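Ligand-bound model needed. NAP.
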Amino acid sequence: MTQGNATVPLAVAVVGSGPSGFYAAASLLDQNDVPVRVDMYERLATPWGLVRSGVAPDHPKIKAVSGVYAAIAAHENFRFFGNVDIGKDVTREELTERYDAVLYAVGAQTDRRLGIPGEDLPGSESAVDFVGWYNGHPDYAHLNFDLSGERGVVIGAGNVALDVARILCSPHERLARTDIADHALEALRHCALKEVMVVGRRGAAQAAFTTAELKELPEYTESGVDIDPAEVAEQPGEEALSRLVKRNLTVMRDYAHNPLPAGARRVALRFQRTPLEIRGDGRVEEIVFGLNALKTDEDGWVSAVDTGERETVATSLVLRAVGYKGRSIPGLPFDDRRGVIPNVNGRVDGVEREYVAGWIKRGPTGIIGTNKKCASETVGRLLADIADGSVRRHDRTAATDPIAEIDTWLRGRQPHLVTEAGWRLIDAAERSSGEPAGRPRVKLVLTEELLDVALERRIA
Ligand code: NAP
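Prediction:
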């Protein structure tokens, strides 16, 4: 079987510029078996996906991984094409016609819903939207969150729930040192919330928090954490719990037994409560919870069982943080329940030449580093498929290589193409406007503003 012209490097398009996209690019560029060129496509004008628009602004150490992505982007065989919407500006088929392989690393772009009455009342919002808003993602910049009430409720016991609760409870001076979007900084300055309740449907031992995120709450919010000691009381059989859960319980018990400072805005952690209904006259006024008992099955899985008891909590803001969900890509198979593209080790089921990595491959779990192994598994599959001929390389020579013409082709489709050079202009502009205030950057949030800088459209 022909393997194409050996003088022409393997051409791979990576769609999506978040962690899994960059780790896939690095895996492709760092191996020595076959020369590869990587073109990375991104719908937004800016790269880095959730590192820019998901990781909380007060977590600069986590965001520092962007330095690794900048180094990958500096590779001579790497190109960035931002502001290109696959499916709109160019089609999937046009990519597979030009590239030997196309790897989708598009993440999980929407959120899971609760499916309860009142969920669409104003004041009941998605944490995914709230995170996009405070991080200056252009799709969410126009949103408004009513922060004028005394209590907010966050549904879910994961790290996203802790992120949003912490940001809501952080003193202004702390946030003002971060790269939080200016519109969010201003809105949060006037936040009247006195308490943000984070509510899990199962017990404290089943919460999906990581210990570092639990531990930092008092320091970051400059307040105590409110926990009912009964909800974290010692249970028989705890020695069998994982080290992570044991550490989490130790931290939570510590909070439960420490007196709360008076007056400060605080995070309250509550467990064994399932949201049943959100009520209000034209906007959120209260939320009804069903109180749960816990039941362990023979495999050790702990589930929540409704006791029939109800609790009503007054609130003006409900943020659901019950997980992200992937979106389908027209023409590719999709598992709607899990929100993933079905695949075997990253090769999309039933199609040739198309691969997936990251959250769209395995679901919205794990930390940023988890995507490294995930992307490298996909790249291993891709290169093995090319090597054994199960995916045929396009038959081309240097003279007929359409990859050389990609730039011109793309500009025909999207005149406002943002290349790596354009992104560097944005990056430099944001960093220099952050400098006087001691902030890592001041984000540009509107696509038009980003394009003005990237394309040097306005000379000051
Ligand atoms: P997550 O870790 O999967 O947590 C989702 C939470 O929502 C769980 O407590 C889950 O409870 C609950 N839930 C799901 N459906 C529910 C429903 N219908 N009603 C009530 N509760 C429901 O998801 P995430 O917080 O979105 O985080 C996504 C990933 O990003 C995670 O791997 C997380 O660790 C990571 N992340 C990391 C950081 C960090 O490292 N600082 C920050 C943010 C996110 P059950 O367990 O009962 O299903």
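Residues 444 and 450 are 6 Å apart (CA to CA).
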